Amino acid sequence: MGRRRITLADVAKAAGVSTTTVSLVLSGRGRDLRISEEVERRVRSTAQELGYRRNTLSVGLRTGRTRTIGFVSDTVASSLLAGNMIRGAMEAAHRRGFMLFAGESGGDPDVERALVEAMHDRQVDGIVFAAMYTRRVVLPDGLDDGPAVLLNALPVGRSSLPSVVPDEVEAGRAAARVLVDAGHRDGVHVIGAGPGLGDVPPNSIAARERLIGMHEVFAGAGVEVASAHQCPKWMPENGYDTTREILRHHRPKALLCLNDRLALGAYQALAEAALSVPDDVSVVSFDDHPIASWVRPRLTTVALPHHELGVKAVEVLFAASERPVRSKAAPVVHRVPMPVQVGGSVRSLRAPSG
């Protein structure tokens, strides 16, 4: 048997005050009701000495708030990289005195629905519904029965829920600017998607939006992309095979890979062809996967801000929960910046000044 839980009555008896006084002090309402500072100090000190903890279940039943948040995802929890979204959400919740309950569905719609129901049964104050990579998702029934926010996801069809996603269009602009600012005007090849905006892997929001940003900057700088190659998957072997295909027909000056795994394969193919990065070919990528820091030279990549996404989702959730009536306006999509992590994989073609 565990130790008996210390109650308000125990604290009141030890402090020599009423149970009502203890309740008011520990709920933060003592000063409003003119309880003296000396009594407040005595009550708080006694509660700490006895090891009193508030019964959050009873508080939740009384106030309608349990100071908990549900986090429902497909495979975020078991993903090495995307798991930082949970860490960011947990830290943001903890700063506000909230706990985070996480559940993973493996992408099974029935499990998703059951997890959402379980979170509501436990009277969570809001739910973060997250995807491992940015995509459109079918929302489970009941998700919008209380405050909720979509993380790394956009809804299929209409929804009143806000979304938090990476700013992939600006990321595409940033990656293209790296090459343009380094003086690259020709010999640029894209690996992973393109040439058209429809030439992307199925349901890949990131690919399309990155292409939009890249095309915008290249067009503004007068850069004509030499070739673009859609890959069904973004794995090292796809980057390797595509780079070898490019080398059969071109002598590239720069490769813009849609993720770091593709770039790893590109590095391998370039090395086999006795071409060095960046002296012969510059390489830029996306995601800031650990691969980016393993390869030599370190890869210049536009980072997915997983931790910041988790923090922002909780901030948006709190903002939504504080609005007494849900707005009828179109749901807001919050875009989190993706910073460039500069490595040594880009050669400057600009002539030195002076």
How are the SSEs placed, and which strands pair?
Layout: H1 8-15, H2 19-26, H3 37-50, H4 56-63, E1 68-73, H5 84-95, E2 99-104, H6 109-121, E3 127-137, E4 148-155, E5 163-166, H7 168-181, E6 188-192, H8 205-221, E7 227-230, H9 236-249, E8 254-257, H10 260-272, E9 282-287, H11 291-294, E10 300-303, H12 306-321, E11 333-336, E12 340-341
Parallel strand pairs: 1-2, 1-3, 3-4, 4-5, 5-11, 6-7, 6-8, 8-9, 9-10
Antiparallel strand pairs: 10-12
Main sheet specs: 6 strands, parallel
Q: Give the DSSP E fraction (strand runs of 2 or more residues).
A: 15-25%
Structural class: alpha/beta
- DSSP helix count? 12
Distance, first to last CA: 81 Å
Uncertain segments? none
The average pLDDT score comes to 89
What order do the helices and strands follow? HHHHEHEHEEEHEHEHEHEHEHEE
Q: What is the rounded Rg? A: 27 Å
Biggest sheet, spatial arrangement of strands: 2-1-3-4-5-11
Estimate the global geometry from the Cα principal axes: elongated
Please tally the β strands and state the result: 12
Helicity, as a percent range: 25-40%
